Amino acid sequence: MPIKLEIQDLSKYVIILTGATDGIGKEMARILARSNPKRLILPARNIEKGNKLLEYIKSSNAVSYTHLDVYKRQG
Questions:
Q1: What InterPro entries would the database entry show (predicted)?
Q2: What range does the domain containing 43 cover?
Q3: Residue 16 falls within a domain, yes or no?
Q4: Residue 20 burial class via C-beta count within 10 angstroms: exposed 0-12, middle 13-18, buried 19 and up
Q5: Of 10, 29, 39, 72, which is most buried with the most CB atoms under 10 A?
Q6: For residue range 24-43, what is the model confidence (pLDDT) as tens digits?
């Protein structure tokens, strides 16, 4: 059962949310996207899940997914 939250205007804020491809993080990304952020950045390791997340949110251009894996060391 979804929880109804009062959505505040976040238009002055740039938000970076990790863990947004599953579970609570995914719902938080959806809620934050509806809060009109200046920018919502959703880094994730799994490219397919990141793209599905953007489809799920279906929000403005202020939301972006970027592939990020800080665990793997290059070089």
A1: NAD(P)-bd_dom_sf (IPR036291), SDR_fam (IPR002347)
A2: 21-67
A3: no
A4: buried
A5: 29
A6: 999 999 989 888 899 999 99
